[in-house]
Amino acid sequence: MKTVHHTLIQDTPGDQLQLVSLHFGEPGRGPKVAIQASLHADEVPGMLVAHHLRQRLLDLEAQGHLLGEVVLVPMANPLGLRQWGLRGFQGRFDMNSGENFNRRYADLCAPVVAAVRDKVGPDAQANVALVRQALQEAVQALQPANALEHLRQTLLGLAIDADAVLDLHCDGVAVMHLYTTPATWPQAEVLARCIGARVALLAEHSGGEPFDEACSQVWVDIAEALGAEVPLPPACMAATIELRGEMDVRHELAREDAEGILRFLRARGVLQADDKPLPALLCEPTPLAGSIPMAAPHGGMVVARCEVGSPVKQGEPLIDVIDPLSGQVSTLCAPVDGLFFAHDCKRFAYKGMALGKVAGREAQRSGALLSV
Ligand SMILES: [Zn+2]
Predict the structure, then answer these.
(1) Which end of the chain is more exposed for a tag (fewer CB within 10 A), N or C?
(2) What domains can be seen in the chain, in order of their start residue?
């Protein structure tokens, strides 16, 4: 394993932050998988999974089981990790700009298409290699103006030429679920099996340019821009994995999740295969546009009436919001048939706050599909 320290641009004198990446295997030998933890710095389960992954990968590397390359960023957001205030931990938004740390990743389609248009040919694998190189060059050509932009560029540089990218997050209170793109579902299905995902949410452009789509959807967009006569497969599968809820920071879960990711690495040929069959798929993919959020109609205490992971029917009561002054009780009911898969972990809501989500089968929403 090689450790690389990436020093970020200083926003203020003396303010030197580093991103650390751990590199297993040899670059260029076998498939590459990039894994990063806790880009939303307050979402801790990913860092614990990365901790267990590091130990297992060190052992597997020593045993000669590593056939490809793994880049592991065990703590993806040194900016957000400092965001303590009055005993509260933030970590989701940059304090200066207010921007979500998992938004505004560069869309590299245009510069890559310009770079490869005259070089691509009938050989799909040769085209993949050309595009990969152009993607990396396009990332390096970005000109970050501050630490936040430099963090985004550095993370993108570590992952943009990978065959698979796993971005480890968590929700408030939730079952295991993931977000990915429709074009890579056949690849992501393997991941969903390996980690035991209960919901898989698919969207091409969910709005806001999250990290995973910058790595994966860009291949689809480049292929479309180059035209049907140029063979170019979606050569990067990227998924945002929601490792249940933010309180689910436990060794037994993290070990299980690390083993699930190792199973995926075996299936992708990054690790020597074993003879174990893939686990069963626990869910059919559903459109992200069919994941329906429920908002608080007024402020008040929040009382969940249904466990996450429950299949629900439209109209079934899920969450009570109780105004402590008036005594008014409003019950949020399932907006569609589907799986009640996540709710916020705060127990007091302001009017309009998104409190929970039900994954339905039909796309019903449009525009920006991700939460703020
Ligand atoms: Zn997150």
Answers:
(1) C
(2) 2-284 (3.40.630.10), 289-359 (2.40.50.100)
pLDDT tens per residue, range 89-124: 999 999 999 999 999 999 999 999 999 999 999 999
Alpha-carbon Rg for the chain, nearest whole angstrom, is: 21
* C-beta separation of 355 from 294 below 8 A: yes
| CA atoms of 170 and 52, how far apart (whole Å) | 17
Q: Are the C-beta atoms of residues 160 and 207 closer than 8 Å to each other?
A: no
CA dist 229 and 223 (Å) reads: 9
Tell me, rounded to whole angstroms, the distance of Cα 190 from its chain centroid.
16
Distance 37 CA to ligand 1 centre (A): 10
Give the relative orientation of helices 211-226 and 109-116 as an angle to the nearest 10 degrees: 40
Spatial CA neighbour of 105 closest among 210, 34, 222, 239? 210
Measure 359 CA to ligand 1 centroid, in angstroms: 18
Reply yes or no on whether the pLDDT at 371 is more than 90. Answer: no
Distance 43 CA to ligand 1 centre (A): 6
CA distance 227 to 243: 37
Cα 93 to chain centroid distance, Å, stands at 16
Q: Alpha helix (H) ranges present in the chain?
A: 45-62, 109-116, 124-141, 147-159, 185-195, 211-226, 251-267
DSSP 153-218: HHHHHHHTT-SEEEEEEEESEE-SEEEE-GGGHHHHHHHHHHHT-SEEEE-S--SS--HHHHHHHH
| Cα 92 to ligand 1 centre (Å) | 7
**pLDDT tens by residue, 298-353:** 999 999 999 999 999 999 999 999 999 999 999 999 999 999 999 999 999 999 99
